Amino acid sequence: MGRMEFEITVDGLDDIAAELNARLADILPAAAIGVGKVAKDVEKDARKLAAVDTGEMREKIQAQPPVIKGDAVEADVVAGARHSLYVEYGTGIRGADSSLPEGMPPATYRPDWNGQTAQPFMYPAMKQNEQKAKATIADEIRKAVEK
């Protein structure tokens, strides 16, 4: 049995490749828009959940603008008050005895003083926006690709 060879020529592949690259160039900026929206949602929810004494901690929770790094997009939500970490995780013996939300990274506590109970606000705000985040980012990408 002999060998049979075929050659198929498809015209227009360069146009298709250019179109795909143009669409890909739209995806990261669109994802950045979605990530920015999610960061704002986390900021809003963290402010609602934050313990309030003077209001400084609540006022210093800020979503940072999204940043494209290579093929990834990220945005930080910063709790800028100096005492934010201590409120989130608690301190001393009471902090160690606090029940933290499931999945929240652990902390190290000094066992030589009573301290304060944890009052998490950043981690819960992030977790309650997790599912919505995927939909928000996907929606922004879909809008960019469908143009």
Topology:
Elements (H helix, E strand, L loop, with lengths): L12 H37 L6 H4 L1 E3 L3 E3 L2 E3 L2 E3 L4 H6 L2 H6 L24 H7 L1 H16 L2
Antiparallel strand pairs: 1-4, 2-3
Helix pairs in contact: 1-5, 1-6
Give the averaged pLDDT, no decimals. Answer: 89
In order across it, which strands form the biggest sheet? 1-4
Shape: elongated
Beta-strand portion reads 5-15%
Structural class assignment: mainly alpha
| Percent of residues in helices | 40-55%
Could you give the distance between the termini? 52 Å
Order of helices and strands: HHEEEEHHHH
For the biggest sheet, the summary is:
2 strands, antiparallel
How many E strands? 4
What this model shows, in words?
The chain is mainly α. The protein has one domain (about 15-145). It is built from six helices and four strands, in the order ααββββαααα. A two-stranded antiparallel ribbon has the order 1-4. Strands 2-3 form a two-stranded antiparallel ribbon. Helix 1 crosses helix 5 (about 120-130) and helix 1 packs antiparallel against helix 6. It is elongated. The model has no long low-confidence stretch (mean pLDDT about 90).
Short characterization:
This protein is mainly alpha-helical. The chain has helices spanning 13-49, 56-59, 84-89, 92-97, 122-128, 130-145; strands at 61-63, 67-69, 72-74, 77-79.
